[in-house]
Design brief:
Layout lengths: L2 H15 L15 E5 L11 H9 L2 E4 L2 H10 L6 E3 L6 H11 L3 E5 L11 H10 L4 E4 L4 H9 L6 E6 L4 H11 L5 E7 L3 H12 L4 E6 L7 E6 H11 L5 E6 L9 H12 L4 H12 L3 H11 L6
Parallel strand pairs: 1-4, 1-5, 2-3, 2-4, 6-7
Antiparallel strand pairs: 7-10, 8-9, 8-10
């Protein structure tokens, strides 16, 4: 192979790795479009080289909070024009970003982690695609997946619930909808509400459901505590609520063992609002215990005999 052929081959290889960069002059040039850039979730060093490249090259950075993104840019000596884009942004803000992305390099980032995960970015991406704007992602740090990794709970299937509702009734309704889903559940919560949330999990999902409380991920005081939810309640009632940002991981229902006493307790509670057959069916769904045996147990608990 000639030297020219080798050079062309090398350029093609590099173009495949980063198709929007011009390596021939050493410049980092990105085509016009909207770039979804992941930012650190705690440790400022958890940012990719590609993310830094596109942030430095951006003509405009749309971000959740310009003060937070400004600190990140300052840490890497990057100067760029910023504008806020968050839950309060309107159609006019989206239109401005999309119009700029038609012929400029525009970045969308959130305060931490991947854009579009529990933020309004999906509306912007949807309209950008409808307008024919090029959209690409610069992946990186992600709190839900980091929490799942550290939880040591089943990771073959998982569901992300976003932020749990602030009111107990709404929170219980959400937990009830996901109670029997055969996957680990990942949710954001706040430290002041943590104990109330754990109490709701006990009530809806049972005292023995495994839960991981992960907080301050990637930071100096990163902490992961995984146990039966009743034990977590006892721990935080004794030692006080933790500080920092929290991600919860709730084990799937088949990842736990129900004792006869637990099953009897669930049946008694179900019988308060359900008929015998309905209660037996409900508890069978929760615990995996045979419905026929649960029906006999329910009759016995109601004093109607076991036949």
């Amino acid at each position: 192979m000639s030297d020219d052929s080798k050079m062309q081959s090398t350029k093609k290889d590099k173009a495949w790795l980063a198709p929007n960069q011009d390596y021939s002059e050493g410049a980092k040039v990105f085509r016009a479009g909207l770039y979804l850039v992941a930012t650190p979730i705690g440790n400022l060093r958890d940012i990719t080289l590609r993310a830094l490249d596109v942030l430095a090259a951006a003509d405009l950075i749309a971000c959740e909070d310009t003060r937070v993104t400004g600190k990140l840019l300052s840490a890497y000596s990057i100067k760029a024009k910023m504008m806020p884009y968050n839950d309060h942004s309107d159609e006019a803000a989206r239109a401005r970003i999309i119009e700029a992305a038609k012929d400029k390099c525009v970045v969308l980032c959130s305060d931490a982690g991947m854009p579009l995960v529990s933020d309004p970015g999906y509306k912007l991406v949807k309209q950008a695609r409808q307008a024919g704007v090029y959209v690409s992602s610069m992946p990186g740090a992600n709190a839900p997946l980091t929490a799942l990794q550290l939880s040591a709970l089943p990771s073959d299937q998982f569901s992300f619930l976003g932020f749990l509702p602030t009111k107990s009734a709404a929170r219980k309704d959400m937990l009830e909808r996901w109670r029997s889903v055969d996957s680990s559940l990942i949710a954001f919560d706040t430290a002041p509400r943590l104990l109330k949330t754990l109490h709701d999990i006990v009530e809806v999902m049972g005292a023995e459901r495994k839960v991981a409380v992960t907080r301050e991920l990637t930071k100096m005081y990163e902490d992961v505590r995984c146990d039966e939810v009743s034990q977590l309640v006892e721990h935080y009632e004794t030692h006080g609520l933790p500080k920092g940002e929290i991600v919860l991981v709730i084990a799937p229902p088949d990842a736990q063992h129900y004792s006869e006493a637990n099953i009897e307790e669930l049946l008694l509670k179900a019988l308060e609002t359900m008929r015998t057959k309905e209660a037996a069916s409900y508890v069978s769904d929760v615990t995996g215990a045979p419905k026929k045996e649960l029906y006999k147990m329910a009759l016995s608990l109601k004093g109607e005999g076991g036949a």
